[in-house]
Amino acid sequence: MASSSALFDSVAPVARGGGDLELDIRQLAFTDSSGIRTFILLADQLRAGASLILANPSAAVRNTLTLVGLGRARNIEITDGKG
Fold it and tell me: Is the Cα dihedral 7, 40, 30, 17 positive or negative?
């Protein structure tokens, strides 16, 4: 919760730039509703056709994201990343 607004404030300008936005979240050990809301808000900042890619989530974070159905959002992908 404490870092959600800082994440949004620092990443939103990049999200508005166009194209997909990939966030490597491998070091994120936990996310709550504030973090999930931030991911949704960031996805809403993307231009049409672009996706927010949440890459390399830990098992615990992936479980949370899956339970809330975030991967079913129209422009959010949860992936093991590219590297």
Answer: negative
Residue whose tokens read 């990443």 = 11
Q: Which residues are registered as beta bridge partners of 53? A: 22, 77
Class of domain 4-79: alpha beta
Sheet with 21-24, side-by-side order of all strands = 21-24, 52-55, 76-79
pLDDT digits (tens, 9 = 90+) for 5-47: 999 999 999 999 989 999 999 999 999 999 999 999 999 999 9
| pLDDT value at residue 3 | 87
